[in-house]
Design goal:
The chain has 676 residues and is α/β, with parallel strands linked by helices. Helices cover 31% and strands 20% of the residues. It binds alpha-D-galactopyranose. The site of alpha-D-galactopyranose has 10 residues, from loops. Residues 151-152, 272, 305, 311-313, 343, 353, 356 line the site of alpha-D-galactopyranose.
């Protein structure tokens, strides 16, 4: 990434470029307009397999040679993709065994994209051949700056080949010991015991219910199978040249790939994000996604795709109103992105995404979107000094795929409508709205650098995480924990002898029953200071051991029992919330907890629709302030005077932000360098 930064000498700005959709005559105009817009990086060839290899083993590189040369002559670097996300028809029809079979047993045929079984040796062999041919031809091309492996890895297959691969994966996981698998999957239940490995198969769509441990292992396997595809193409391009970043593009809260494990295999992290412009509040989930991307490798990351305006995936695809695209772009940068990239450069005339917005819309340079893209491209160099800068947070929020899969892969929980990313987002929202910086951590992360950890929806927890968490709190850390955490082990088996299993010591209480609410049922909760709030969805019958109650149910069957408790643990403290608090109460509870832990917000007393984030390097700090309201002006007190890099205007003790405005306030660094 440092190499890419040095080469581009500024934020990467550009998008997916699909010249294979256009006549040669258009390419010169493309490059000229890219230059005009300030584009310095394009992603080429993502879905170009059929144009590059029209028949098996016959390559047509002439057009790509020409495009690479044109871009290079225009001073535009290339993020070259392997085209393996969209196999050509000759592969799908010539070798139908490469097609995935979906969970319902139906084959996902040609005519879309991602129509491949990641475990298919034939698919992998053909993917390796086109990847090798591209690497051989373009590794030395002066335009090449980065390798983009495939695109948005995602399909899961239920083919016989996938079943065999699943068995091999299980044999490795359980040390070739079928008894260990039987124990892990609790196959004594419903007579599911296996007596030979060839009886073990992926969990198909259940007619009624299915084994939760088997589903969980299949999720893990599927993520690993996709990752193997990435690794095999990565290793091919690296074998030709190992000084360029190699990565693939992640998707927002994507359930089928454990991005912590993936990120470790990549040189940098890249994200595609498409918040629905028709929904008011997607900015909180976007911010959490951005913090997750930064945290996956503890580095600046690449905003690889966003929409310049509308997308094509919703029932109604609203446009981004004026100023929203710019604001969203700065939001990503504020949370650590070193780029602003789009899907795509020029709007397609046909195909499914013909109305998906583009940097260059159908209506050309007269369009509002073009003007906003061009203006942003011209503006980004003003903040070039922030490129590569890092950030520090004293708060971490857990987002772990095993926790997600444990909560959502199988029926049979006290309630079966949990939304793991939604729960984590609900607990992150107060931090964002309260202007606190947060990192994201997994079960395997080092927690020792944080003061507060927020854990929500971690019904499944690993033993290693529990041990790390206990050390963290014992050493003085603060844990804020939601209901229904710590209950099962990594095999989806209930930890004994009492709920909440692994967290009993931490929360200083046991729970004898989980009480999901009936539809529409609410219950009053009264806090020690006399305030009350109305909760719903979930209750727990909590029995404090070392904990003390800070809020009690004041109505309903659990009236008089604790709803929120606090427990001293070593030198630290745990706040356990046993019910679903309404947003305002959760907001107050989270913020009181972080303030009690001695953590300060980035700015004090700013309105909640203003977002604050800070990046820094050895010379300076950059305070990003973003006004997400499209009607209200905000006055924000800033902690130190500086200069707004976007306007060049000196900032004293406060800044005024118009609706949708952004300020990037640079202050000279006084203290320790930020970690990058
Ligand atoms: C994804 C894909 C792109 C495009 C966009 C917009 O992120 O990677 O090819 O389809 O979505 O829908």
């Amino acid at each position: 990434m440092a190499g890419l930064r040095a080469r581009l000498r500024g934020f990467a700005f550009g998008g997916d470029y699909n010249p294979e959709q256009w006549d040669r005559a258009v390419w010169d105009e493309d490059v000229a307009l890219m230059r005009r817009a300030g584009v310095n990086l394009v992603t080429l060839g993502v879905f170009a397999w059929a144009s590059l290899e029209p028949e098996p083993g016959r390559f047509e590189f002439g057009w790509l040679d020409e495009v690479m040369d044109l871009l290079h002559a225009g001073g535009i670097a290339v993020d070259l993709a392997t085209p393996t996300a969209a196999p050509p028809v000759w592969l799908s029809h010539g070798h139908p065994e490469v097609l995935p079979v979906m969970e319902d047993g139906k084959t996902f045929g040609f005519g879309n994209r991602l129509h491949y079984d990641p475990t298919s040796p034939r698919y992998r062999q053909h993917a390796a051949r086109i990847t090798t041919a591209l690497a051989e031809r373009y590794s030395g091309h002066p335009a090449l700056a980065m390798w983009h492996i495939s695109n948005e890895y995602g399909p899961i297959a239920y083919t016989p080949g996938a079943a065999a691969a699943f068995r091999d994966w299980l044999r490795r996981r359980y040390g070739d010991d079928l008894d260990a698998l039987n124990d892990a999957w609790y196959t004594r239940f419903w007579s599911q015991r296996y007596t030979s490995w060839d009886q073990v198969a992926p969990p198909e769509l259940p007619r009624s219910w299915s084994n939760p441990a088997r589903r969980l292992d299949f999720q893990r396997f599927a993520s690993d199978a996709l990752r193997e595809c990435f690794i095999s193409e990565r290793d091919i391009v690296r074998s030709y040249r190992d000084d360029l970043p190699v990565l693939t593009n992640f998707m927002r809260f994507y359930r089928h790939a454990d991005y912590w494990r993936w990120a470790a295999e990549q040189d940098a992290v890249a994200l595609d994000i498409y918040p629905d412009p028709g929904r008011d509040d997607s900015r909180v989930a976007a911010a959490l996604n951005f913090d997750l991307m930064r945290s996956l490798r503890g580095q600046p990351w690449i905003l690889m795709e966003q929409a310049a305006s509308a997308v094509s995936q919703w029932r109604v695809n609203n446009v981004k109103p004026p100023g929203r695209m710019r604001l969203g772009s700065y939001q990503a940068i504020a949370h650590g992105a070193d780029s602003v990239m789009y899907f795509q450069w020029r709007a397609s005339r046909g195909g499914h995404e013909r109305f998906h917005s583009a940097m260059l819309p159908h209506s050309g340079t007269g369009a509002r979107t073009w003007r906003e893209v061009e203006a942003l491209g011209a503006e980004l160099p003003r903040i070039a000094e922030a490129l590569g800068s890092g950030s520090r947070a004293e708060i971490a929020v857990l987002f772990d795929w095993d926790a997600w899969w444990g909560l959502e892969t199988a029926y049979g929980l006290p309630r079966n409508d949990f939304d793991y990313p939604g729960m984590v987002t609900d607990h992150y929202r107060p931090l964002l709205e309260g202007h606190f910086a947060a990192d994201v951590v997994s079960f395997d992360s080092d927690l020792s650098r944080y003061r507060v950890l927020v854990v929500a929806g971690a019904h499944l927890v690993s033993d290693g995480f529990v041990a790390r968490l206990e050390r963290f709190v014992a050493a003085g850390g603060t844990l804020l924990c939601s209901y229904f955490c710590g209950v099962v082990d990594p095999h989806n088996q209930v930890r004994q002898p009492a709920y909440p299993g692994a967290f009993r010591g931490l929360i200083g209480a046991y729970i004898d029953e989980y009480w999901p609410a009936r539809d529409g049922e609410t219950f009053e909760v009264r806090f020690a200071d006399g305030t009350t709030s109305v909760c719903d969805w979930w209750q727990e019958s909590i029995h404090p051991e070392s904990a003390r109650a800070v809020a009690w149910y004041a109505s309903g069957s659990l009236s008089g029992r604790p709803a929120v408790i606090q427990n001293p643990f070593g030198s630290g403290r745990v706040v356990y919330v046993g019910t679903r608090l309404p947003p305002a109460t959760l907001h107050d509870t989270v913020l009181a907890t972080v303030r009690d832990a001695g953590v300060a917000p980035l700015v004090e007393a700013a309105p909640d629709f203003v977002e604050a984030a800070r990046r820094g390097n050895e010379h300076a700090e950059f305070l990003f302030l973003l006004n997400h309201s499209d009607t209200r002006t905000a006055r924000v007190a800033v902690p130190a005077p500086g200069v707004d890099l976007l306007t060049g205007v000196a900032v004293g003790d406060h800044v005024s932000l118009d609706p949708l405005a952004v300020a990037v306030i640079r202050t000279e660094r006084q203290r320790q360098p930020a970690a990058t």
